[in-house]
Amino acid sequence: MQVRDFMITNVFTVKPSNTIKELLTILHSNRIGGVPVVDDQGNLVGMVSDGDILRYLAPKPVGIAGLVYIIEDGEIEDVVQEKLDTPVKEIMTKRNLLFVSPDEEFEMTLRLISRHRFKKLPVVNGAGRVIGVLSRGDIIKNISEKIIS
Questions:
Q1: According to the model, what pLDDT value does residue 65 have?
Q2: Three-state DSSP class for residue 8
């Protein structure tokens, strides 16, 4: 079996210039936890997840042992509201991006996802364009449907 047999082809993506607010809308409305970040040609330039958003929006610890948090200029809601206009490029993972090709063997992909504890892995064609995504949940679903059944 190959990646193409398991990948999701209806891929939601964002551009580096999209705001965190726009990203949140995509994640929430599609009930997903992360998306590839692509340039205008659809080439993979990063990945961004709900965890990246939470780390960015969380108050930063200061002081002894990180027990004190400072909220900059107002309430937490105001701070979060301001941060929502930040471009995705500020929080996305840009380095050491891992991806697979549609022709990759399924067994190797399983090892890659489990070793690195990824929730999602982009599928990229020979031209560098994102053509699919593999998620842990979809792999489990497909194993159940295609192998166990």
A1: 54
A2: strand
pLDDT value, residue 18:
98
- DSSP 3-state percent helix, strand, coil across the chain (nearest 5): 40, 25, 35
Compute the average pLDDT of residues 101-106. 92
Closest CA to 13 of 33, 43, 38: 38
Assigned fold of 3-148:
CBS-domain (3.10.580)
Are residues 135 and 12 in contact, defined by beta-carbon separation less than 8 angstroms? no
Contact predicate 100/123, CB 8 Å: yes
pLDDT band at 58 (very low <50, low <70, confident <90, very high): confident
Three-state SS at 116: helix
First and final CA of the chain: distance in angstroms?
16
